[in-house]
């Protein structure tokens, strides 16, 4: 285990180094407090400020804290956590490799240090045959470009806005680095949440409680208490349209939209108001169903169905580019709210408040 493994723990050779050292993860989580603490820092930092915290002085602790952090994320098992954790790890890696690339110090030229070059990253992700250097940047094969840019926001990344050159997309050096960050993020997110054996999950209970506390305290309300139908995923916009057009919804569709509205913070009264325009609306039934979903009249608070379930029931409608990057309608909405300017959200809130005040008059 060396310094480069510690700086870039997602690399294949870092994983090999952990395996070759015969590390028993169950033993580490049960007995190595320093590793578990650093793993907790990685995860809570990702939630709190989008960073993975300061590197541990020991390469061993730093490297092992990465697989332990993945276990911790899996034990807590929340979509928003997986997304924020993968983003924070990818951002940290991006900062390091772009600094490495611009560092011309002697250490770099003699090799054998802890740096990682752009070419090595391309090789790591099997991209070397699909990214071609040219004089003032790179050309990326279209399928590779589409794959790596699919989660990037901003019109500039859309293929229709790029100049194609012989089936390839010309990109600048910084743009290629952004695409590499996406490759890293994808690898980190891949497979999360892991299936964690019970003894390991039990040993991780204390840090998992700490992470859940941060999740509960953080301003997730900013993400979920703002109701902006324009930012709903296409499936939920469609279901909401159907409700408001007075169409009859099958039970699974009604459960999907009701649980989604409840999960983003609408009260039972607010949901009942939305359904009132529907002639097939039954207030009692809607109240009962919504209270049940909210956990008021049942021991469980229900979460809106995942994309896989929505697809299975035929409720996935008009998926767009962002849908390729998420696996839950709530994640779609969280990403959209994240992307929205705080100022715009403030406008939405004021609009909601005014609407509520008008309704009260
Ligand atoms: S992919 Fe998911 S979020 Fe997108 S429309 Fe389908 S169910 Fe909704």
Automatic annotation (TrEMBL):
Positions of the DNA primase large subunit C-terminal domain: 226-327
CDD domains linked: PriL (cd06560)
Described purpose of this protein according to its UniProt entry: Regulatory subunit of DNA primase, an RNA polymerase that catalyzes the synthesis of short RNA molecules used as primers for DNA polymerase during DNA replication. Stabilizes and modulates the activity of the small subunit, increasing the rate of DNA synthesis, and conferring RNA synthesis capability. The DNA polymerase activity may enable DNA primase to also catalyze primer extension after primer synthesis. May also play a role in DNA repair.
Pfam families: DNA_primase_lrg, DNA_primase_lrg_N
Subunit structure comment from the entry: Heterodimer of a small subunit (PriS) and a large subunit (PriL).
Record key words, sorted: 4Fe-4S, DNA replication, Iron, Iron-sulfur, Metal-binding, Primosome
Name of the molecule in the record: DNA primase large subunit PriL
Record's GO cellular component terms: primosome complex
Note on cofactor: Binds 1 [4Fe-4S] cluster.
Cofactor or coenzyme needed: [4Fe-4S] cluster
GO molecular function, one term: metal ion binding
Chain intervals with Acidic residues compositional bias: 337-347
Highest taxon of the lineage: Archaea
Organism taxonomic ancestry: Archaea, Methanobacteriati, Methanobacteriota, Stenosarchaea group, Halobacteria
Family listed: Belongs to the eukaryotic-type primase large subunit family.
A GO biological process held by the record: DNA replication, synthesis of primer
Gene name tied to this protein: priL
NCBIfam families in the record: PRK02249.1-4
Organism whose genome encodes this protein: Halobacterium jilantaiense
């Amino acid at each position: 285990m060396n310094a480069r493994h510690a700086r870039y723990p997602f690399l294949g050779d870092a994983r090999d180094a952990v395996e070759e050292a015969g590390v028993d993860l169950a033993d580490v989580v049960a007995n190595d407090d320093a590793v578990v603490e650093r793993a907790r820092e990685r995860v809570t930092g990702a939630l709190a400020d989008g960073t993975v915290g300061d590197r541990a002085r020991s390469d061993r602790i730093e490297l092992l804290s990465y697989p332990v952090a993945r276990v911790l994320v899996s034990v807590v098992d929340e979509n928003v956590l997986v997304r924020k954790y993968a983003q924070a790890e990818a951002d940290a890696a991006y900062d390091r490799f772009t600094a490495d690339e611009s560092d011309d110090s002697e250490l770099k030229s003699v090799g054998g240090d802890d740096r990682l070059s752009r070419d090595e990253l391309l090789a790591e992700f099997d991209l070397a045959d699909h990214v071609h250097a040219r004089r003032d940047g790179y050309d990326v094969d279209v399928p590779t470009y589409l794959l790596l840019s699919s989660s990037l926001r901003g019109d500039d990344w859309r293929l229709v806005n790029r100049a194609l050159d012989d089936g390839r997309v010309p990109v600048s050096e910084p743009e290629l680095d952004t695409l590499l960050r996406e490759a890293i993020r994808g690898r980190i997110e891949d497979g999360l949440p892991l299936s964690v054996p019970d003894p390991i999950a039990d040993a991780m209970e204390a840090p998992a409680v700490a992470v859940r506390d941060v999740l509960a305290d953080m301003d997730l309300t900013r993400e979920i208490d703002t109701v902006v139908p324009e930012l709903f995923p296409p499936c939920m916009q469609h279901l909401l349209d159907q409700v408001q057009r007075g169409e009859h919804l099958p039970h699974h569709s009604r459960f999907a939209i009701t649980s989604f509205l409840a999960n983003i913070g609408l009260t039972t009264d607010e949901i009942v108001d939305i359904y009132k325009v529907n002639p097939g609306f039954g207030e009692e039934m809607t109240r009962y169903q919504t209270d049940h979903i909210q956990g008021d009249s049942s021991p469980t608070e229900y979460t809106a169905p995942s994309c896989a379930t929505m697809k299975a029931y035929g409720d996935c409608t008009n998926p767009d580019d962002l849908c390729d990057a998420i696996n839950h309608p709530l994640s779609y909405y969280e990403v959209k709210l994240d992307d929205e300017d705080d100022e715009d959200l403030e406008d939405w809130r004021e609009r909601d408040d005014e609407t509520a005040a008008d309704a009260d008059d």
